[in-house]
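User: Fold this; tokens only.

Assistant: Input:
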Amino acid sequence: MTSEGWGTRSVEPVSQHYIVCGGNALAHRLVLELVEHYEVPVVVLVADRTRDHAPQIEQLPGVAAVVEYASITDEALREVSIDTARGLALVEGSDQDNIHAALSAQGHNPDIRIVLRMFNQRLGENIERLLRNGAALSGSATAAPAFAAAALGRPNSVEIGGRFLHIAFDEAITSDRICVVADHIDRQDLSKIRLLPEQRGDSADFVRLASEFGDDGPVRPGGVRREAEPEPAPEEEPDGVAALQALRIEPREPISWARRARWRLLDMMRFFTSARMRLVLLTALAAVLLAFGVLWYLNRNFGWTLYISLLDLAGAAQPDQLADIAAGTGTGGLWQRVAQVVITICGITFAPVATAIVVEVLGSGRRGQPRNPGAGTRDHVIVVGLGNVGTRVAAQLHELGVPVVCMERDPQARGIAAARALGIPVVLGDGPFEEQLRRARLKHSRALVAVSGDDATNLEAALEARHGNPEVRVVVRLFDDNFAGHFYATLDNAASRSVSYLAAPAFAAALMGREVRGMLSVFRHVLLIAELTVEDGSGLIGMNRHDLEDPGGVRVIAVRFARSAQLQWNFPDRTRRLTPGDQIVVAATRSGLARLNTALVDEV
């Protein structure tokens, strides 16, 4: 028996097709992107056609074939006609497996476009240099900004030309917005949202007046108004609006030094959990302060008193000798000696406690275990799941200065080492969510982000968190759109994101040779920010803003002309035609960018 699975049908002769290797959620979304928006033939190579998303992929219209092989071998690549394919997407498997498959595919077809998923972005950059026509993308890195921004209750941003583009909603929209990107926003029914709706131009009011004074308008010459026929009342539409805006700098989450000092002080209390220990230490501290006061009163010199007290605490004070006392050169009498003895004895009490604290702090890192959240953990974000996505989300929140606590059931998860290196507390264990969330200091948290690979687990974590803290914001990773719609309608102060839904458009655009600079989320919808260069022979030559925008799904937000090094935002001349060397930055829906890419592919 070969590595080919039972029941696999051979691929009928096909050429100029695209191959997707994988049967996971990202592969499913990517195939949908290619067959629905780009309308290209797709052949899918899966390890098991009965598992994961492979059965759903096989039912998609437009899929030329689904081929089953346990691994991506030379035989498997020949079976999917690698020699005549235009593109190959490797979206499942380890980084090493994907690199091996990419190099094998390039050996069969040197001109093929290869896009591979890589968790290690630095390694991916180096692999791109080995491929003649390839790109390495990280699905988790593409989606993580949207999860981190949702946890903080703000839109994520994409940096273009020194500005940070983000989505603003309703009252947050300012007069210097770039363009309206969505309207008819109803949080109870997200299907009503319209992405990139038609905009009212500056001449809209003049057109309305012209229609009123025209031959068929209600106003006749002389100002006499004709009775207009009553029109049916239009249905009331949701009035929620979203717009694209730009910031000069990306906003951070500033935390004052006073709050951090308070958290540190509270965190130290975890070492003093015993009531008897607290009583002994407080008594010793009171005795030290009283003795310090006696020394200060006797000597009237604060600096010298502090100096001698610290030496006494450390056991390094020089005692008086009988000869010194007889000669009158002692330290200052009986009460000073008593005070020094008290400080020295109390120092014996403090020394082992301080040593134990130091050993505990340093030893936890040396044992290879992440530290547990302390009593001072406040205003933090809980990240449930330390897989690829959870690791990226935790790292990004940490970089923004937001306190983070992670939860993970698998002690071998790849993100634990990354969390330990960043000093992020991790709650490990397979206990009930209620207990795990209590250890993660849910009562004092600001948000919970559930990003494990299972929708049911993520929903369970979110509901348990909302039960334990009704004010906490919850962000849940969900694949199913209907499930997500019910989630939005049921819970307030909540958000849902899909990693595959966020990453698939970028993988599809990269497979077509286009650069997507980033993605902005409008609830469960995605707005792509892409940069296109007008090259010789490109279908963009001779097109103006009307040609690009009128078919819908595209807004030109910035232009950089061939002889200029600066981006011009909202370039007003809609009739100027593009020439070779020009660059345009567009905000586009998935179908809008696919339309541009398809036109370019057909022309080139």
